Every structure is written in structure tokens, then in C-alpha cells.
């Protein structure tokens, strides 16, 4: 069996069981892909257990994922699940790893990034990092939308206009899931041919507005615990629901078909 046919077989198995065609590129390969000029908007989704759970019932989130050019496994629980149930291995590429790796590779005079952050301090800090590396200030876009902006047609139209006017090559959405993905899907046809990343807290981590778990915690696959302890009111209910969802999959639950393998 050829490498290509083996990959096709793996993708078919993963889609049949989990409803998604997970991209099996490594972090470095995805960064290199994201540095190529895009002819159309390219949406990158990093799928964690919570995303997978929301995808079972949220039709708009399903529509957003349906527009994705790349879907990665964001977190070891899904990777271990896939290994256990299918004997296939898929690389873990989290938004928290992908964003800084790509940010470090963006090129002054070539790339024109736009940051949509949860707080203005995060967007400003990221822009300052790039200016210090030689980027012109007017080659960087930034915005920190108010609560409920996704329901404000005028605000969204203005934001889309800013993104297009910049000639954005890389759009980074950091206003949370599924809000980021839903906003991108709603305005997909109006967005420029950019690489688009919905990476949540990654903007806060890279701007040092929030602290990511120490490396030793990440290596022990306990980053979820660090995050839960830092925001217990928000994350304890979410992680409890995710754990029950995982238990259902282990018990044999098949998931809704969302993103089939690309042919």
C-alpha cells in the first residue's frame, strides 16, 4: 500500500469515527504552509475536546468548521483517544503553540498581520513586538472589539473593512471560541485571501497578558489543570462536561460528520 493510500485510509477512518479529517502535518509544516501566499481565505481550526463537543449540537459552529482548510488536534486527550480507538497517531498542534511559532516567522515588508484581541493591551503588545523586529507600524492591524460585537452589523462591517484595507495576509482572532470561528464564517466571503487563525488565549499568552502553564506542566499533559485552576468558575463546568463527553465516545458514541477528507 502506498503512503498516499495509507493516508487516505487513515483519513476515512478518522472521519467515520470523529466526523473530522484531522490534518496530520507537523507544527513546522503548518507554519511553512501559512507563509505561502493564499489565493483565498484559509481558515485554520485547532480542535480540542470542547470544540468537538460543541460541534455535535451547534449548527453554526459546524458551518464554520466546514469552511476550514486545516483542522488540527489541539490537545493530548483527542490524540490518546484516536490512538486507543483506531491505532492511528495524529500530531498535536495547539493554537497556543502554532501562534507564537508563526508570529516569530512573519516577515517585515512581506506579511501584514491583523490582531483581533480580547483586550487592547494584548493587540498593542503584539504589534510592538513586530515593530521591534522591523515591521512598519502601518503594516500591522489591530482591534479589540466590545462585548457583543459579533451581533453589531455596523461594527463588523467596519472591522472587515479594516482587515481588507490593510491587505491582511494573516488574521489572528483571539476573542474566544466559538465566537471567533462564527464571526469568521459569517464574513468569510468578504475577507481578503489571508491565513486565518482562531487561537483564543494564544494572543494573551504571547503578549504576556496571561501566563501559560510552565513547560514541565505542559510536558506532563497537565496544562488543562493549570488553566482550570486559574479560571475555575469558567472552566470547571466546561471541563466536567468535556470529560463526560469523552466517556461517551469511549463507550461507543459516533460523532456528527463535519469536515470530510479533501479529495
UniProtKB/TrEMBL annotation:
Name of the featured protein: N-acetylglucosaminyldiphosphoundecaprenol N-acetyl-beta-D-mannosaminyltransferase
Protein keywords: Glycosyltransferase, Transferase
GO molecular function terms attached to this record: N-acetylglucosaminyldiphosphoundecaprenol N-acetyl-beta-D-mannosaminyltransferase activity
Database matches in Pfam families: Glyco_tran_WecG (PF03808)
CDD domains in the record: Glyco_transf_WecG_TagA (cd06533)
E.C. number: 2.4.1.187
The species this protein was found in: Novosphingobium capsulatum
Keyword hit for Glycosyltransferase: yes
Keyword Glycosyltransferase: yes
Amino acid at each position: 500500500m502506498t503512503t498516499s493510500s495509507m493516508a487516505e485510509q487513515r483519513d476515512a477512518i478518522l472521519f467515520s469515527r470523529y466526523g473530522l479529517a484531522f490534518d496530520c502535518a507537523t507544527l513546522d509544516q503548518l507554519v511553512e504552509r501559512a507563509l505561502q501566499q493564499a489565493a483565498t481565505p484559509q481558515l485554520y481550526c485547532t480542535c480540542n475536546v470542547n470544540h468537538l463537543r460543541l460541534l455535535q449540537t451547534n449548527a453554526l459552529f459546524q458551518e464554520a468548521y466546514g469552511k476550514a482548510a486545516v483542522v488540527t488536534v489541539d490537545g493530548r486527550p483527542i490524540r490518546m483517544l484516536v490512538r486507543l480507538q483506531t491505532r492511528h497517531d495524529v500530531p498535536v498542534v495547539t493554537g497556543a503553540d502554532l501562534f507564537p511559532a508563526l508570529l516569530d516567522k512573519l516577515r517585515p515588508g512581506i506579511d501584514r498581520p491583523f490582531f483581533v484581541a480580547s483586550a487592547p493591551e494584548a493587540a498593542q503588545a503584539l504589534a510592538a513586538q513586530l515593530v521591534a523586529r522591523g515591521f512598519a507600524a502601518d503594516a500591522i492591524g489591530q482591534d479589540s472589539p466590545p462585548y457583543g460585537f459579533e451581533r453589531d452589523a455596523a461594527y463588523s462591517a467596519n472591522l472587515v473593512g479594516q482587515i481588507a484595507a490593510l491587505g491582511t495576509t494573516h488574521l489572528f482572532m483571539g476573542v474566544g471560541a466559538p465566537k471567533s470561528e462564527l464571526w469568521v464564517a459569517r464574513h468569510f466571503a468578504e475577507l481578503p485571501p489571508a491565513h486565518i487563525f482562531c487561537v483564543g488565549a494564544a494572543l494573551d499568552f504571547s503578549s504576556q497578558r496571561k501566563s501559560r502553564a510552565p513547560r514541565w506542566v505542559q510536558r506532563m499533559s497537565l496544562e488543562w489543570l493549570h488553566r482550570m485552576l486559574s479560571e475555575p468558575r469558567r472552566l470547571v463546568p466546561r471541563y466536567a462536561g468535556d470529560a463526560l463527553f469523552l466517556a461517551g465516545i469511549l463507550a461507543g458514541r459516533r460523532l456528527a460528520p463535519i469536515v470530510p477528507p479533501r479529495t
